[in-house]
Design goal:
This protein is an alpha+beta fold. It has twelve helices and 19 strands. The strands form five sheets. Strands 3-2-1-9-10-19 form a six-stranded mixed β-sheet, with helices on both faces. A five-stranded mixed β-sheet has the order 13-12-11-17-18, sandwiched between helices. Strand 4 and strand 5 (about 40-45) form a beta hairpin. The radius of gyration is 20 Å and the shape is flat. The protein starts with a strand and ends with a strand.
Amino acid sequence: MARDLAIDLGTANTLIYARGRGVRLDQPTVIAINRRTGDILAMGEEAYAMIGRTPGHVVAVRPMRGGAISDFDTTARLIRMLFDRVGTGRFGKPRVLICVPSAITEVERRAVQEATLHAGARAAYLVEEPMAAAIGAGLPVHEPAGHVVVDVGGGTTEVACISLGGIVAAKAIRVAGFDMDAAITTHIRHEYAIVVGERTAEHVKIAIGSAYPQPGEQPAEVTGRELATGLPKTVLVTAAEVREALEEPVGQIVQAVVATLAEIPPELANDVLDKGIYLTGGASLLRGLHTRIAREAQVAVHLAEAPLACVVLGAGRILEDFDELAPLFTDEPARR
């Protein structure tokens, strides 16, 4: 029998959990393609290193945008390569559980299932990311108590209140880590007339980005291409101006949390006040984001133990207790 797999096919990173073996793969969701031949040259870390550094006939692309498939064929080929990486080939066709944002449409959900079947899966099940994130964070989702999870990924932010194994109130917005990078790129272009790439913007976000003032903030050197001359130029960017640049995406994330809390039934609202909000997802690591949410929502905020892996760990837990947790699947599975 093939091993069952759980896949967190994120806009930024893809993680795979193999039943009985744990997390087997954690790679950027990037694929490098030769435009002339259509051949795939690299994937994951290798392809990510090529972003902004390739000749004209080679393109490094992210086949997922906003948690949805932007290129069906490329995504199917990527998933097939992922299967090969984790060694499913010799076991036959696996059953696959895919984590999807609650924001995507029915057509987009179907596209994820079809791409997975096209890649060689025997059956494709879907589970919503907030539910998987809550399980991965160790929350008792089947209890009659309210638990709020905020999953801030690369392409989407999802806020959900979970009780009795279901989502009671939720809000999903297509604003997350990549929008923070884009905001930094725009700010540097406007303020310094310098163009920087996606990877440089991400580096600035990780180095000095924040959602709330931090002690001992230091400026960072940023190198890009000057618009007027086309020559390389280095400027000094402060943490305060990066925080100001991030205000719009961060503000939308905080507003989504506040709006979801406003929709929670009063009985569950008491539970949330007692237990607090749990932050998961890679972009939740932005400095001060938990403080900012806590101040504006007036609720304690906890960062999950392994925020980057929470979703796939939760999906892995579902795999290990497949029959018992099957009611958490959002749709009927697609099968070959």
